[in-house]
Automatic annotation (TrEMBL):
The keyword rRNA-binding does not apply. One of its GO terms (cellular component) is plasma membrane. The chain crosses the membrane at residues 12-30, 53-80, 92-111, 131-151, 158-179. It is a multi-pass membrane protein. It comes from the Bacteria. Its main location: membrane. Pfam families: LPG_synthase_TM (PF03706). InterPro entries: L-PG_synthase/AglD. This is Uncharacterized membrane protein YbhN, UPF0104 family. The keyword Ion transport does not apply. Keywords: Cell membrane, Membrane, Transmembrane, Transmembrane helix. It is found in: Cell membrane.
């Protein structure tokens, strides 16, 4: 390990601990700022029956399978069960690290490479799946805004529309990069030039070659989109609907009966704030925002917050141990496979007696 890496490691650990501390503090603060208490929330959760919890778990798993179907369509030869493993393992890593999306992608890259998929195919898969994720969340926000306006309820956070417009602009820019070769070439060339200048400053050559690689990646993404978009859109729609039903079901098992507009507002807030999670999995930030929507919608504080925490426990917290187990199983199987290859006898030399 280099001196620079040694210096960065404590800083990374400190940053991780600090962000995790902020997330925990925010979650701990939520009941008080919503006019409830942890004892009141715990009482509501204890009254949820085991069959209801099992039904919620089935809804959660059904959503993951629907999502995995779309992921499998974005990487030729990827089985749905392996796509599900990618989703769970990547989420487990991303949900425990600050801005852990990059680490989750790195984990997925190692997994798909072990299954024989190439680098270029994984790059295309990553771009397309993330693009569809952003688009689907923006669509959810737009649909929720319409439902809230029709219901005449002002329950969406004030910054929601502004943030949605910003995200939509970023999506359009990304789509433009994918669809217009000239734009991708120009952007790639600009990055190459900037990298070359930076290399001269630090006296270390930095070669990116994005002028050629970015248009090639864009062309691959367009080809994949033309072939797989019906399956990806269907899977993404099913996943979003199942997640929304799960959120509504969490409200019901906690004794609440919110209207469609309020459920849509809660779901849109969750989708939007998980686009760029400041804390791991958006923990603390999302719960705080959702509790504000619960209060704005006129729901009782303790049951409303209990439903929010139950939903987040399934969609975020549960993915950590389950995804961790998947990742451990993949690692053990990979190590076992290497051991078997190492123990296998070498083929006899040609012509040997």
């Amino acid at each position: 390990m280099s001196v620079h890496e040694g210096r960065r490691s404590p800083l990374r650990l400190l940053a991780s601990v600090g962000v995790a501390g902020v997330a925990v503090a925010l979650v701990a603060w939520v009941p008080g700022q919503s006019g409830s208490s942890w004892s009141g929330v715990a009482q509501v959760v204890r009254e949820v029956s085991a069959p209801d919890l099992a039904a919620l778990a089935v809804l959660w798993l059904a959503g993951l399978v629907a999502s995995a179907t779309g992921l499998a369509a974005c990487l030729p030869g990827l089985l749905v069960r392996r796509a599900l493993a990618l989703s769970l393992a990547g989420s487990a890593v991303a949900n425990v690290l600050p801005l852990g999306g990059a680490a989750g992608i790195g984990t997925n890259y190692a997994m798909v490479r072990s299954w024989g998929h190439g680098r270029a195919a994984f790059a295309t898969y990553t771009v397309v799946t993330n693009l569809f994720d952003v688009v689907s969340k923006v669509v959810v926000v737009a649909v929720a805004a319409v439902l809230v306006l029709l219901a005449g309820q002002a329950v969406l956070p004030g910054a929601l529309a502004t943030t949605a417009l910003g995200v939509a602009g970023a999506v359009l820019l990304g789509a433009l990069l994918l669809l217009r070769t000239s734009v991708a070439t120009a952007v790639g060339g600009a990055v190459d030039t900037a990298a070359a200048r930076l290399g001269r400053v630090v006296r270390r050559p930095l070669r990116t070659d994005l002028r050629h690689r970015l248009p090639q990646l864009g062309a691959s993404c367009v080809t994949l989109l033309r072939r797989a978009w019906p399956r990806v859109v269907a899977a993404g729609t099913a996943y979003a609907l199942l997640q929304a039903v799960l959120l509504a079901a969490c409200q019901r098992v906690c004794g609440l009966h919110p209207g469609l507009a309020l459920v849509a507002a809660l779901f849109a807030t969750d989708r939007l704030l998980t686009l760029v999670p400041v804390t791991p999995g958006g923990v603390g930030v999302v719960e705080t925002a959702l509790s504000a929507v619960v209060l704005a919608g006129g729901l009782p504080a303790a049951p409303g917050l209990a439903a929010v925490l139950l939903y987040r426990a399934l969609t975020v917290a549960a993915e950590v141990p389950v995804g961790g187990a998947v990742l451990l199983g993949w690692g053990l199987r990979r190590s076992w496979g290497r051991g078997v290859r190492d123990l296998a006898p070498e083929p006899a030399a040609e012509g040997a007696a």
